[in-house]
Amino acid sequence: MAIRKILTEPNKFLRKKSLRVENVDENIQKLMDDMLETLYAAPGIGLAAIQIGVDKRIIVIDINRDKDKKSKKNHMFFVNPEIIWKSEEKLTYEEGCLSVPNQFAEINRPKKCHVKHLDYNGDFQELKAEGLLATCIQHEIDHLEGILFIDYLSKLKKAMIIKKLSKQKKENVERIVV
Length: 178
Ligand code: GNR
Ligand code: NI
Fold this sequence. Notes:
By secondary structure, the protein is an alpha+beta fold. 29% of the residues lie in helices and 29% in strands.
């Protein structure tokens, strides 16, 4: 297992649409192991493969581990996830993203969703989610389409965040060079 580097905005690769996984084989499982380790190291509650530079439709989620490191691992892998139902009822959650460091914003999404996917063993699963889990699943599936939560903000707010992140990136590069 290995902790992988997480890509951050602005980065064109984060805007790429991820590709379906044809076969959940050993290499895919190894990738999922790395994703889990990277998620816990970050720490975060969800991670999409594209965030570590792999354009495959794979997500890992653990909404409990972040707050309580001693809690039992309770992660889920989603391969080729598809939302098959969304509630009319909405929920606003303050979202963050490991690829948009230190930026937070309230985002409104369906409160509940049903998702079908393959698990770590390549077996078919269907899951009913609500609350934070539903929010996180939708946030991660957006990543597979090249969508970030800042895309839901006003043009001005989004531009301000991207400007801030570009500046931070530039400063980091200069720190290394000098
Ligand atoms: O760690 C994360 N926290 C979070 C909080 C509210 C809504 C979504 C998320 S996902 C984020 C990790 C991440 O960037 N996943 O793609
Ligand atoms: Ni994210």
